[in-house]
Specification:
Radius of gyration: 21 Å
Structural class: alpha+beta
Number of domains: 2
Mean pLDDT: 79
Number of strands: 10
Distance between the termini: 44 Å
Helix content: 10-25%
Order of helices and strands: HHEEEEEEEEEHE
Shape: globular
Strand content: over 45%
Largest sheet: 10 strands, antiparallel
Number of helices: 3
């Protein structure tokens, strides 16, 4: 007796499609932990997941739609660092960040338009600039 004889015609196809969707959605779901990305934040799967590194809990993958700025705004264009210096820029700039990593010599951030890496001081308003996410799973 084959599996196709157990289900009415058409039902098996519908069941397999529904199962595929459920399994796919489960791949990008986190375990619901909230994290502050105080050390590192970068996109790892465009439109689905970000990498979030916390000084207290380590490295996590976080669902794209669960990430926010400290003031509750979700526009990444609002994540800005000031007094930044880059390879072709001797002066100080305020830049929109695509990703960032905090290191001993400052915040290394990739600028959102060109991806050029700049170094910004990790003090003042820059110290408070970080992403938080509410739906993360441990890497």
């Amino acid at each position: 007796m084959s599996l196709t004889n157990v289900f009415p015609k058409g039902c098996l196809t519908f069941t397999l499609i529904a199962l595929s969707i459920i399994l796919y959605l489960g791949q990008v779901q986190g375990d619901g932990t909230a994290e502050k990305c105080d050390l590192h934040f970068a996109e790892i799967d465009p439109g689905n997941e970000f990498e979030c590194d916390s000084s207290t809990t380590g490295n996590h993958a976080c669902r794209y739609t669960s990430c926010y700025l400290p003031d509750g705004k979700t526009s990444w264009a609002l994540l800005k660092f000031d007094r930044c210096h880059g390879p072709r820029q001797p002066g100080s700039l305020t830049l929109e960040a695509q990703s960032y990593t905090r290191m001993d010599d400052g915040i290394h951030m990739a600028e959102s338009v060109t991806g050029t890496v700049y170094i910004c001081p990790n003090d003042g308003a820059n110290k408070d600039q970080m992403i938080g996410c509410t739906d993360c799973r441990k890497n």
